[in-house]
Amino acid sequence: MPTALFIVRATVSDPAKRAAFDAWYSRAHLPDALKSFRAKAWRHWSATNPSQHLATYQFADQDSLERAVGGEEMKRLIADFNRDWPDVTRTREVLVLAEEIAA
């Protein structure tokens, strides 16, 4: 089964809040999500749109991803995020590996 990625894109519109968001995500939210998801993760700030923060979680396959994001733990993670960052909007996307090429 192909690798699946769960991508959360958060828009932190207020530049004055980005450092606090970055620290919270790194110290509180990401460790909590990793404990819940049991996945590999990366975080990025967009170089072309500084308000965009992306978190990518890698799962062995789509079934593993769907189990992780379809349960009560995901609802709790969303509620915690909404409580701490009510003005930060986000989108979520699921990608399934179609092909991998190495040079």
Explained architecture:
There is one protein chain. The protein is an alpha+beta fold. The chain has a single domain (4-96), classed as Alpha-Beta Plaits (2-Layer Sandwich). Helix content is 40%, strand content 29%. It has helices spanning 18-37, 62-69, 72-84, and strands at 4-11, 40-45, 52-59, 89-96. A four-stranded antiparallel beta sheet has the order 2-3-1-4. The longest helix is centred in the first third of the chain and has 20 residues, at 18-37.
Count of alpha/pi helices: 3
- The count of DSSP E runs of length 2 or more, i.e. the number of strands, is 4
Identify the overall geometry: globular
Instruction: Please bin the fraction of helical residues.
Output: 25-40%
Number of domains: 1
Q: What Rg is obtained from the alpha carbons, in whole angstroms?
A: 14 Å
| End-to-end distance | 23 Å
Label the CATH architecture: 2-Layer Sandwich
Low-confidence region ranges: none
Secondary-structure content class: alpha+beta
Order of helices and strands: EHEEHHE
**Beta content:** 25-35%
Major sheet characteristics: 4 strands, antiparallel
CATH-defined topology: Alpha-Beta Plaits
CATH class category label: Alpha Beta
Tell me, rounded to a whole number, the average pLDDT.
Answer: 95
Q: What's the arrangement of strands in the largest beta sheet? A: 2-3-1-4
Give a brief rundown of this model.
It is built from three helices and four strands, in the order E-H-E-E-H-H-E. With 103 residues, it is an alpha+beta fold. The protein has a single domain, classed as 2-Layer Sandwich (Alpha-Beta Plaits), CATH 3.30.70.
